[in-house]
Design goal:
The chain is α/β, with parallel strands linked by helices. The protein has nine helices and 13 strands. It is globular, with a radius of gyration of 17 Å.
Length: about 240
């Protein structure tokens, strides 16, 4: 069964705010449409039907966008965090609305257009069933290879897939980087502190890795990241050239 998807949208998008001050980052236009709609298309292509938006900055603008978009097969629910909570705090805040175990968590500013869960691990039981059977009760980070990994930092993992280290923005020519996609068991979310601002990437994942409860799953490139003006331009060029989704 495809898990519910949670898209983390609480950030202010400070590096794009000067160019798009009137909208949240997820509604910045990319190749002629709001970026969030590209994420929705990718989710639909992968069989996801339930989406929970963990919103914060300019959530009113996002609410108006959702009200105006045509109905489709996605069941989209908007949640507003009461104050900036970081990626970890935002996920904890929406815990009462989670309906799946595990849950698919997605950063709201990145896209992996070549990733198709139906072909990622070709097994008769499907990717999500297989990965949970192989790594029960472990968090999973989907990681993609990149030639110039220094901007992102790298995820290092052993031959069995367990994450051994995070190298933040090291001077590396190539490596695997966090693709902004996580498959997290509900007990991980349950164990997060409530009412606090914290980061999945810097607070939660290193702790899980130290417990040997965090796995990296390689996925195909590219990783498109619209968190910076340069990243936005690269994403725009890719989507206009290939329109893969």
């Amino acid at each position: 069964m495809i898990p519910q998807a949670v898209i983390l949208l609480g950030g202010k998008g400070t590096r794009l705010a000067a160019q798009f001050p009137d909208r949240p980052k997820c509604l910045v236009p990319v190749a002629g449409r709001p970026f969030l709609e590209w994420q929705f298309d990718w989710l639909k292509r992968n069989g996801v039907v339930r989406v929970l938006l963990a919103a914060g900055h300019l959530a009113d603008v996002l609410e108006r966008h959702l009200a105006a978009r045509p109905a489709d097969e996605l069941d989209v629910v908007l949640s507003r965090e009461p104050a900036p909570l970081g990626t970890g705090g935002a996920l904890k805040y929406v815990e009462p609305q989670l309906v799946s175990d595990p849950v698919l968590v997605i950063n709201g500013d990145s896209l992996t257009p070549k990733l198709d869960f139906s072909t990622l691990w070709k097994t008769g039981q499907g990717f999500f069933h297989t990965v949970e059977k192989k790594f029960p009760q472990c968090g999973k980070i989907l990681a993609t290879p990149i030639e110039n990994a220094g901007r992102y930092g790298t995820v290092e993992f052993d031959p069995d897939g367990f994450v051994t280290a995070f190298r933040e923005k090291a001077d590396r020519a190539a490596g695997f980087v966090n693709a902004g996609l996580y498959l997290l068991p509900r007990d991980v979310v349950t164990g997060l502190p409530a009412g606090q601002a914290f980061s999945l990437e810097t607070d939660v994942f290193p702790a899980l890795a130290a417990q040997r409860r965090l796995v990296a799953i390689p996925i195909p490139p590219p990783l498109l990241d619209m968190g910076t003006p340069d990243g936005l331009a690269a994403m725009e060029a890719f989507l206009r050239a290939e329109r893969p989704i």
